[in-house]
UniProtKB/TrEMBL annotation:
Identification of the protein by name: Sulfotransferase
Membrane-crossing segments per the record: 23-42
Alphabetical keyword list: Membrane, Transmembrane, Transmembrane helix
InterPro entries: Nod_factor_sulfotransferase, P-loop_NTPase
Entry-linked SUPFAM superfamilies: P-loop containing nucleoside triphosphate hydrolases (SSF52540)
Amino acid sequence: MAEYICLFSKDTLIIKPPKKSPLFSRTIALWFAMLCGVYLYGTCLKHVGTFTMLKFQNIQLIQKPSLEALIPTLHYPKPESFSRGECSLNPVRFFAIISMQRSGSGWFETLLNSHINVSSNGEIFSVIDRRNNVSNIIQTLERVYNLDWFTSASKNECSAAVGFKWMLNQGLMEHHREIVEYFNHRGISAIFLFRRNLLRRMVSVLANSYDRKAKLLNGTHKSHVHSEQEWSLNAGCCAFELQANYQFYITNK
Ligand SMILES: *[C@@H]1O[C@H](CO)[C@@H](O)[C@H](O)[C@H]1NC(C)=O
Ligand SMILES: *[C@@H]1O[C@H](CO)[C@@H](O)[C@H](O)[C@H]1NC(C)=O
Ligand SMILES: *[C@@H]1O[C@H](CO)[C@@H](O)[C@H](O)[C@H]1NC(C)=O
């Protein structure tokens, strides 16, 4: 550092006062500044160009589901823990909402559960014991999709669609091969729900961690939407990117 400063001051000392007319040197400086300006402007434009291109780049559909795939396979789950009664012959569809924390999945789940025949069971894999190895995961999934899983979201014997919410960091990424296999085997629809605005998601993560510690008067967390009333209040405000696919698109390669 010291050496650098010495060199610098030497250089400064070497510079002699210009002998040419001040007007000439001023014109040179002006031209130089103009050239620099044009160059910088050009580079900026180029950057903006790539940025916009990235922004509008669309996610490509790997495989379009055929019409047959859209017509669901009929399932007649026979739960062990209760009888489906009059609805034992009604088909049931299986789904899993795949998302990340603070992406609006709670809001989306409330929307689904507001239908009498839909039952979405929440983040069942938030409990570590259920996801510490593949066999535990499959066992949990079997219970959900055999309709033997009971939460406050379980409706009645007439449930026509059953699923739950799965965050990417809850064992899903670690065991994706086996999970894809299982999903294909049981015909489970994966609903990918990601928030388009990542910055908002990050802000929300921070707000939530604050909210968790803060004790509110009524003992509720304001950053979560759970009741139907809260849901309808928020319905107009949020733009989510929703892709419902009939296949699970994480590949093995
Ligand atoms: C998975 O973990 C459970 C304990 O939670 C254990 O009993 C079981 O043997 C483990 N299975 C495998 C395949 O490691
Ligand atoms: C939805 O639920 C109602 C009452 O619980 C039932 O009568 C009806 O059959 C169900 N619909 C389907 C498609 O299961
Ligand atoms: C608590 O709940 C009551 C009524 O349910 C409401 O009027 C009040 O504003 C709530 N307080 C807070 C801090 O949310």
